[in-house]
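Data availability (excerpt). The following record was deposited with the supplementary files.
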Amino acid sequence: MNHKHEENTVAVSPKSRLDVHELTSVALMAALLALLAQIAVPLGSVPFTLQTVGVVSAALLLPRKNAALAIAVYILLGLAGLPVFSGGRGGFGIVAGSSGGFLYGFLPAVWLAASLLGKSTDISIGRVYLAALSTMPIYFTIGALHCSFVMHISPRQAFLVAVLPFLAIDTLKIVLCAPLIWKIRRLLHIQTPRLF
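Predicted structure:
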């Protein structure tokens, strides 16, 4: 009887470690998003931040489910009033405001990007860039439509105000950061293969 109990314990243990590892990676990624969001420069109605670097990091470093969960945790923390959004802000008003669409637009963005990568690390840098850059049209489109609705302006006006000023800088951030993030993923894949 005791022998069977020991076998069951051994069988369950790896699953428990995997769950803890996943939760830890999700929590750390949500914390990284919160940290990068604090590096902000006001530009019109939508601030320039390093938040998108955190979004791309989630997409490139974590499996699809965990990447989306990290974004969701980050948004929920902000909705709860914690100062995790840009400029140390938090609360429902931020998500409902003119820039809120960019926040929840990060969810489908990381889901798509992580899906394009899969679980392998043996992927060309071109595919890495494709996955990383694929986040932009998603969160920009959702962000612009949300901004248009909240500010009662046309989608074209919303694009000019909330998207156009950030296209070049977001592209530059991703182009510069994606290779480094991918190298980190390769290291993580070796050190913590269970994460993938």
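Summary of structural features: The chain has one domain: 2-195.
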